[in-house]
Design a protein that fits this description.
The protein is an all-alpha fold and about 325 residues long. It is about 75% helix and about 0% strand. The chain has a two-stranded antiparallel ribbon with strand order 1-2. The longest helix has about 35 residues. The radius of gyration is 22 Å and the shape is globular. Its main location: membrane. Pfam families: 7tm_4.
């Protein structure tokens, strides 16, 4: 018992993993990671600038899109310190409290993004079901309340997460399997029962993320029902086209999330590099691709970007 307690007390840090089994290859990841973070900031910054500058984009749909862009940047930046530490500066050690803090923000912004995607599904439902009263239903006040509720929900859900982790004794390895801190990853290193941690994580996945998915699916069932009631085929296609960007954003977020969850629970026999790739795809790919999807599918944003390029070209 004395040795067990001493081992727990001596744990001051975790060791993060870059490319499993190939630490000498870590510097090769510096450039692509730097490119991904740059594209995240540039793409989402462009979306926010376009929405702010173009008055035609001052609509509920684009206010929700701006919240999504801010969430994507925040989620991506939550992983930046440890990514830079490993792949740029070759420092793999992270302090225990810093790891817990990073864990809180990564999971927190993940829950926020899920809530934002649900809000955007509701936005599309109102826009198609009752277009004449769209702006009067989703007023600035309503959007602010929805955004506040999403943030409060995420905080309440994720706030308890650090406490069960901090009470666990880590008397074996302190090497994490990713280049950033996740609850389920740190939990596997404990040498005591993690039943409470596992149960809480399962409850969050089912009651929060699972419920969000069901609400999005239910929204689209109602949207399809409304669209099929439209007489004109052209109007039906036009209505569905306004949902394509959101559908892509939903798939970009939930498909990698489900993949990471399944691999953590059932893919322990898979090579470590698979775990690393899936975890990085889950957090880095959606913030990069979401702005691209909305820029391609939204005429007003695409037009504003083209105008900005022409203005800069003219000044040059």
């Amino acid at each position: 018992m004395k040795n067990f307690t001493a081992s727990y007390a001596n744990l001051q840090s975790f060791i993060l993993t870059g490319i499993p089994g190939m630490p000498e290859k870590n510097p090769w990841m510096a450039f692509p990671l730097g490119l991904l973070y740059t594209l995240t900031l540039l793409g989402n910054g462009t979306i926010l600038a376009a929405i702010k500058a173009d008055e035609s984009l001052h609509q509920p749909m684009y206010y929700f899109l701006s919240i999504l862009a801010l969430t994507d940047v925040s989620l991506s930046m939550s992983t930046l310190p440890s990514m830079l530490s490993i792949f740029w500066f070759r420092v793999s050690e992270i302090a225990f409290d810093s790891c817990i803090t990073q864990m809180f923000f990564i999971h927190g912004f993940g829950v926020v993004e899920s809530g934002v995607l649900v809000s955007m599904a509701y936005d599309r439902f109102v826009a198609i079901r009752d277009p004449l009263h769209y702006a009067s239903i989703l007023t600035h006040g309503v959007i602010t309340k929805i955004g506040t509720a999403v943030l409060i929900r995420a905080f309440c859900v994720v706030f308890p997460v650090p406490f069960p982790i901090k009470r666990l004794p880590f008397c074996h390895s302190n090497v994490l399997s990713h280049s950033y801190c996740l609850h389920q990853d740190a939990m596997l290193l404990a040498c005591a029962s993690t039943r409470v941690n596992s149960l809480y994580g399962l409850i969050v996945v089912i009651l929060i993320l699972g419920l969000d998915v069901l609400m999005i699916l239910f929204s689209y069932v109602l949207i399809l029902k409304t669209v099929l009631g439209i007489a004109s085929r052209a109007e039906r296609l036009k209505a569905l086209n306004t949902c394509l960007s959101h559908i892509c954003a939903v798939l970009l977020f939930y498909v990698p999330l489900i993949g990471v969850t399944m691999i953590h629970r059932f893919g322990k026999h898979l090579p470590p590099v698979v775990h690393m790739l899936m975890a990085n795809v889950y957090l880095l790919l959606p913030p990069v691709l979401n702005p691209l999807v909305y820029s391609v599918k939204t005429k007003q944003i695409r037009r504003w970007i083209i105008q900005m390029f022409r203005l800069r070209k003219g000044k040059a």
